[in-house]
Amino acid sequence: MLESLRTRAETRRKAGELYGAVVAQARRPEFYTDLGVPDTPVGRYEMVVLHLFLVLERLRSAGGRGAPLDRMLVEAFIADMDDSLRELATGDLSVPKKVRRAAAGLYDRTMDYRAGLAEPSDAPLAAALARHIHDAPAGAEADARLVALAAYVRQSARALAEVSPAGDGVRFPDPPHSAGIPR
Asked: Whole domain around residue 133: which residue ranges?
């Protein structure tokens, strides 16, 4: 019994570390300054969800071995959404409803991003990113930014495939800079 409690505590600790890495990467300024992601609560949510999706997909590819870890990672996300909404002075009665909406958003985006990654071209993934990243500027510059973000997502998925999040943690590539994005 003690061993199962110790294992659960270790899994929870690892999930906390992974979620911290997800949030740290999602807060990289290049996403907001160079790729046009709005620096708003919604934009930051979208980036957390995008990076969380990538880690969850990596755990999913590991088979049943990642199941407890991915569940606790989602629990860390939900707890963070609850805390963030309360910090934003959201009324106590509406927090659970908004947290459910945030969790549902994770699953909706998972389906869209998974389908986009399954395609050989970056265009479907860029379209999925455009649907979810609000306030993206219109025109050729926005298209270049979305294509750069889609390429980054693919590069991240490849980088994560080379590590075991449960053992090694996660390493994301650097986000693209605007200097490398054609205008």
From this structure: 2-170
**Residues 6+ away with beta carbon under 8 Å from 131:** 112
pLDDT of residue 96: 82
What are the residues whose beta carbons fall under 8 Å from the beta carbon of 159, sequence distance 6 or more?
171, 172, 173
- Report the pLDDT value the prediction gives residue 85, as an integer from 0 to 100: 80
Looking at residue 146, its amino acid is L
Q: Decide if pLDDT at 70 tops 70.
A: yes
Count of structural domains, the chain: 1
Which tens digits make up the pLDDT trace of 112-134? 999 999 999 998 999 999 999 85
For every residue of 26-43, DSSP letters joined together read HT-HHHHHTS---SSHHH
Asked if 142 contacts 36 with a C-beta cutoff of 8 angstroms, the reply is yes
Query: Does some domain include residue 37?
Result: yes
